[in-house]
Specification:
Elements lengths: L2 H9 L12 H9 L4 H4 L3 E4 L6 H8 L3 E6 L2 H10 L5 E5 L2 E6 L7 E5 L15 E4 L8 H14 L5 E8 L14 H8 L3 E10 L5 H5 L6 E9 L1
This protein binds S-adenosylmethionine (SAM).
Length: 227
């Protein structure tokens, strides 16, 4: 899945992956179940391959500083405009950085460019990572590179909440792609401690994927801590 594939999706409004609601696992693990409000200002959450996800806004509304990366400038500008957030655009080390300092919320920054080209210090200050539709957006031959890159950018102790999908790949071409628990272990166990938090049958909820041919679908949620 090269960047041109995604730019074409954005330019032609083929963005079925975009959700108008907040991801329930994010709201659960970073909301009531998460850190106390007064601790959140010290936390900075990175959302890789963020699109124009509402999750970015929810995090900023709930006291977390937010950093995203997204290749499509259309997605990034739509995120700020659709959410009525004022923003500015600066060039940082050759990459476009969009910044919203809206006084109502915590700071939101989005790198507009290729995730794989992020500078080594791009995730400075990041304490947490939320990956809902990033790993599963990538075909199998890109996933090890993705994990190597995101691992190289993190400090020890950084927490990740990862959401994966598990289905029979013969029933549907990705994206999203099926990622088994075994593959998660293969990709992450060397550099992370891993807890599997949830496995849920979601075939009746994910009607879009059911309509694409899936007859069974499990969503899994993992928590990692970088060693
Ligand atoms: C499946 S979508 C998920 C978007 C978002 N996380 C969400 O939950 O709605 C994957 C996103 O990653 C972006 N993307 C894909 N490859 C990328 C790359 N190499 N660098 C930056 N963004 C990328 C695409 O433009 C797309 O918006």
């Amino acid at each position: 899945m090269k960047i041109d594939f995604w730019l074409d999706r954005w330019n032609n409004d083929k963005i079925g992956f975009h959700q108008d609601k907040i991801n329930p696992y994010l709201a659960y693990f970073y909301g009531d179940k998460g850190p106390a409000i007064e601790q959140r200002e010290k936390l900075k959450v990175f959302v890789p391959l963020c699109g124009k996800s509402k999750d970015l806004l929810w995090l900023a509304q709930n006291g977390y500083e937010v950093l995203g990366v997204e290749c499509s400038d259309r997605a990034v500008s739509h995120f700020f405009e659709e959410n009525a957030l004022s923003y500015r655009h600066v060039e940082k080390e050759g990459t476009g950085l969009y910044i919203s300092d809206d006084a109502r919320f915590s700071k939101i920054e989005i790198f507009q460019g290729d995730f794989f080209a992020l500078e080594d210090n791009a995730l400075e200050g990041v304490t947490d990572i939320f990956d809902r539709a990033s790993l599963v957006a990538l075909p199998v031959d890109m996933r090890a590179d993705y994990v190597n890159k995101i691992t190289s950018l993190q400090q020890s102790g950084t927490r990740t909440l990862l959401v994966t999908l598990n289905f029979d790949p013969a029933e549907m071409d990705g994206p999203p792609f099926s990622v088994t628990d075994e593959e998660v272990m293969d990709l992450y166990s060397e550099n992370y401690t891993i807890d599997k938090l949830i496995a849920k049958d979601v075939i009746e909820i994910e009607t879009g994927l059911k309509n694409r041919g899936l007859t069974a679908l499990t969503e899994s949620v993992f928590k990692f801590v970088k060693k």
